[in-house]
Amino acid sequence: MFGIGEFLTRTRGRGRLDPTDILTYLYLTLGTILMFLPVAWLVLSSFKTPAALLRFPPDLLPYAQRMVKVEGYDQTLPLFNVRMPDGSTRQMAQVRRVGIEAQMVDPANPGEIIRVNIADREEVREIRLAWENYIEPLQRFNFLVYLRNSVVVTVSATLITLIINSMAAFALSKYQFRGADLIFVVILSTLMIPISVILVPVFLVITGVGWNNNLLGVIVPGAATPTGVFLLRQYMLTIPDELLASARIDGASEWRVYWQIVMPLAAPALAVLAIFSVMWRWNDFLWPLIVLSRSELFTLQVGLAAFQGELNVQWHYVLAMTVLTLLPITLVFAILQRFITTGIATTGMK
Amino acid sequence: MTTRSQPVLPPERLTFGALLGRLFFSFYSGLMTAVELVIDPIQRVIGVNRMAYFFVLPNLLIFGIFVLFPMVLNIYYSFTGGVNLFPQNRPFVGLANFQQIFSCANFLDPNSCREDRFWRGLYNTVFYVVFQVGGMVAFSMLTAVVLNRSLLGRGFFRSVFFYPVLLSPVVVAMIWKWILQRDGLINAMLVSLGMERIVFFLHANWAVFWVIFISIWAQMGFYTLILLAGLQSIPRELYEAAEMDGAHRLQSFRHITLPLWAPTLLVVLVLSVIRAVQVFDQVWVLTGGGPGTATLYVVQYIYETAFANQIQQFGLASAASVILGVILLILTLFQLRIGRQSDIA
Q1: Contact by Cβ (8 Å): B231, B145
Q2: pLDDT in tens, B226-283
Q3: What is A67-123's CATH number, 2.60.40, 3.30.160, 2.30.30, 3.20.20?
Q4: What is the CATH number of domain A141-347?
Q5: Interface of B with A in 213-232 (CB under 8 A)
Q6: CB-CB neighbors (< 8 A) of A178 in chain B
Q7: Which of the listed ranges A8-12, A149-153, B24-28 does the model predict with the highest average pLDDT?
Q8: Which 59-118 residues of chain B touch chain A by CB within 8 A?
Q9: Dihedral, CA atoms, A14, A16, A22, A23, nearest 10 degrees?
Q10: What distance in Å separates the CA atoms of residue A67 and residue A47, rounded to the nearest whole number?
Q11: What is the pLDDT of residue B345?
């Protein structure tokens, strides 16, 4: 029992490694594997050829059959190790396969065709990254359009959110006016009302405004986030009023006080809200799914879901497009991770 | 003479980041100065004090049109029938939609209900909330305790557990769909251990298990961070004092850590319950609600009733979402109640 107590409360090491430390590192190692392995597996799989994806049990690394160019043949041919009747093994390319018989050709001597049983040949495989998984869907499907839509939605929605939320937070934290409390309480009370509860009427409003099948219909409705107003207001309350008063004495207009004094001082809170907003918007699915029904307007998430829902799932493309979808947010995280984790830990509390 | 030597400043190095910052700042101030030309006249007309209304206006407009008005309208919708979207063309049907939902021979048996999918969704959601939140809070607490110890690479491990939080529900669903498919990684492991392959999403129990497991995997990092912050805000001196008084480590966990951690735990519990009640996207991409109705949840029922079915029953969907809203409201009030009590304690 002493061990458990030690484990639960120790906050500072004393330089020696005791059993609880070993337990800790074991837990963290297992956790790291569990958290990263699925993503790593996705990335590795996305570089495999369709044939390699069908193999069971799957290979760890993206192997692909070696292809060779043989004189007299237009296409590159797959290379095999062939067991010859005399027991020797030769490397030959396969011209075609008929039933259980394969017609093989020696790359060094392309004139002569040798027929062998398909059981006597084995693929020559090498590690090769199947970049075509990434390139082909970008050319053949609308993925670049989806990507552009997602970027447009994420960037413009985040900018609108930052501006209108900070303006409202400024008014609610730095002015005394009739209705301020009421407005704040009403906004707060909807903190827990998700869009999934009001899908139908919001859809009606969107349709009424004419934003059905329009990116504006995705961008605008969620812009007035209660979370953002609350977070920014609490932060702005800590900015001393004297600063604002002295700026006003110097002749600054209210708008100038807002953009030149309050906004820069609220930068940390704005950054946290920006990160939240980018995350929400980039990953948003249900609302874009309802608003957008024309495929040239799909965001990445909707496009990806539609793509994988097709009858014949083309896994090699789906996996590559999934990697492309998670890449931007992963890069942002890799650069800003310390900032994001501490920022959310300190403000997520409120 | 009066020439004083200036302190020698280091030569300014313009890094890429600084350059970007300057560029952004000049763009920002240029834009805001331009906006000023429009807004300062407004201030002259309405006066300084009423500028507050000007500042809340944009947020309030969007909030009113796209949140507040729809909330009211949603209740009206739930009393109307027909398939037309526009309310002026919808016949008022009174409580018919609610009657349809609540017409059950036996409320514990969804098969006996007219809207059996609603009740299945509701019961599935309750099951999901209990086990997803329970499992997730337990793992988040354990991970927070572990990360609170002095460790090499604590920041790294913190980020590791947080990373899946950033992934979109669709991406998470795709990652796991690939791993769990018939020829996937998990089945390869099973076969190498000499077991049979399992087609997980054809078995109701397995589907439910994985749906819960995956959402814990995807979300626990967020709650771990909040719980960790809560742990770190407990003053170290308390433990030292307890140790001086001869308290057992387990005792100090029980009597110092847990009570001081409780407010954070409550926040985590509330946030995660409210989130779990709305479970939809990840599961929808992963299982489509199947097999059968094993992973059908309330939001999927609302979505399908209003938007995905042949007949778009907006009234019925609104009635269901009003019920969902009431459930969320009760949970929120419950939280406020407990929160106030624990403040007093």
Answers
A1: yes
A2: 899 888 888 888 888 888 888 777 888 888 888 888 888 888 888 888 889 989 989 9
A3: 2.30.30
A4: 1.10.3720.10
A5: 217, 221-222, 225-226, 228-230
A6: none
A7: A149-153
A8: 59-60, 62-63, 65-71, 73-74, 77, 85-87
A9: -30
A10: 17
A11: 37
